[in-house]
Amino acid sequence: MQKVIDGETLEIPQHIAIIMDGNGRWAKKKHMPRGYGHKAGAKVIEQICDDADKLGIKYLTVYAFSTENWKRSVEEVTGIMNLLRFYLKDSVERASKNNMRIRVIGDKNALDKDIQDLINDAEEKTKHFDGFNFTIALNYGGRDEIKRAVQKISSKVKNNELDPEMIDEQTISNELDTAELPDPDLLIRTSGELRLSNYLIWQLAYTEFYFTDVLWPDFDMNELKNAIKYYNGRDRRYGGVK
Ligand code: IPE
Ligand code: IPE
Ligand code: MG
After folding, report:
1. pLDDT (tens digit per residue) in 149-185
2. Which atom of ligand 2 has the smallest separation from the CA of 63?
3. CA dihedral sign, ordered 42, 47, 53, 57
4. Which of 68, 189, 191, 215 most suits a substitution to test ligand 1, by most atoms within 8 Å of the C-beta?
5. Ligand 2 close to Cβ of residue 26 (< 6 A)
6. Domains of the chain, with CATH numbers?
7. What's phi and psi for 118, nearest 5 deg?
């Protein structure tokens, strides 16, 4: 889909994935505790959802908590989980207003039971909305996701439901948490780090990468537009010749 942004006709990526990084450094710069940064970051997510929807982006998938983030202090992890509870509680109402479908990817089993219930509720109550697809990666790790997919495929083989010869790339994609989502067209990582940190490692095979030094709580519509402008300057060849 094309759209005129600031006088320029631009191709709008269908699916944008974001590694929202830099909350801690943002708080530190303000001489505040890390939790202050996470709170500010959570507000930005809501705004960026609206902005992405306005720009015509169909899918937005954000990295909220990785399988490695449990290494942080109990205080920080508890703070992030409480923000999540807060977000999920009023997400259904927001989603209804914006025709937004909410999904959560990652291993939900390790989360507190009340958070699992809030997730199930949000997913169930928004599943018929088809305007905008918002996906939160929570206790998500790309390697963990592939491990779980391999386990599901192996048990199908064991039960004679699947012939190993018939396993192709689509079989694997279908068993990932992202089975219902197209692969991202554009990945954005804030805060200047140039790594994937275990995010969507299968799905990002042919995605364009945009890195910015802006810390996540400072990310806004203007930054999102900059990322889309950058995307428009890329030549996606998928291994072919153009
Ligand atoms: C990203 O910000 C949010 C999460 C990982 C939950 P960080 O908390 O990683 O912030 P920095 O990287 O320490 O600045
Ligand atoms: C990646 O950020 C995870 C999220 C944004 C949720 P991290 O801050 O955890 O990544 P590293 O530790 O810098 O690689
Ligand atoms: Mg970080």
Report:
1. 999 999 999 999 999 999 999 999 999 999 999 999 9
2. 6
3. negative
4. 191
5. no
6. 2-141+183-232 (3.40.1180.10)
7. -65, -40
